[in-house]
Amino acid sequence: PIKFPHVPRGLSWMAVDYYPDEGTVEGAKQMYQQHLYPKMAAHQKALYISPAYGASKKYANRLCCNNVTRDGPNPPCGGNCTLAMIRWGLSMYDWFRTDERIVGTVSFHWSGKPGANHGLFNPGLKYMPRLLAFWKKMGAEIVSGRQGNITGF
After folding, report:
1. Residue 62: Cβ-neighbour burial (10 angstroms; 0-12, 13-18, 19+)
2. pTM
3. % residues pLDDT > 90 (the chain)
């Protein structure tokens, strides 16, 4: 739960992150609806900090498609973080298109090099070509105003 009493009125946008090692897209949506939105004023909007990372084989299932989270299981990915992040991205995109309080998303994280000693979440989006192509296609749909279904992934 979000423990602050309210979002300061001077803020226009507020963001919270929630990743597949913690929960599910549905769990993130519920967190926003039950814990964040009630603390926001009518003029305030929300961003979502979306997962867009890889992980070594040792940690991929736990970090990218954890099946034991506070919200229940994520779909299995067989250690394929790109697949898991695209699935997560498609689900959040469907959520965002129906939620007027969401004004955008920012990915976590961009520049971690494959095999870099930068924590567990490597590589970053910059080094994941298929996932990066998905994010670019999603961005193009949002900017175009069409916001149709994203296919080919």
Report:
1. middle
2. 0.91
3. 75
